[in-house]
Predict the structure.
Amino acid sequence: MEKTENLLVQQLKDKKTSQEAFRELVSQYKERLYWQIRNIVKDHDDAHDVLQNTFIKVFRNIDQFKGDSKLFSWMYRIATNESITFLNKKSKRLQISSEELQDSIINNLESDVYFEGSEIQLKLQKAIASLPQKQQQVFNMKYFEELKYREIADILETSEGALKASYHIAVKKIEEFLKTN
């Protein structure tokens, strides 16, 4: 039986129970966080690296979690920020722009053995990659993760109204991209 979130947070903050609680935390959330990260970084191996960094950051900073949001929303925000940081560092390391990196990542999806998508799914990924980063995040969270606007608002620390507008604009841009490509 899954522990309540409050109990899990208490156990994570207690030095005596933190190791076992952390194992449970990883068990409960690794798959959902992996797919959130994967939707941003696209590459399987990179997603695993970012997931590890996310859990390390969660473990080190659990004392800073105040309970103002759900634990998952807090971790999701960390995962999103870690993913963006990872991509920014990668583009700097490769000495290319963020847009060039996105193009490269999408082109590599075709040869990625972990990508099981069809041609239309590949086109959808290309369309998503053409969006500004914030719209990509909102679209991925709403479309793929099926999160509610309230949850996305907690994660991205913005208003539901702004998210609805951003999602609507993203959908229109994706539709246009798919029609013209």
Observations:
- The CA atoms of residues 22 and 43 lie 26 Å apart.
- The radius of gyration is 17 Å.
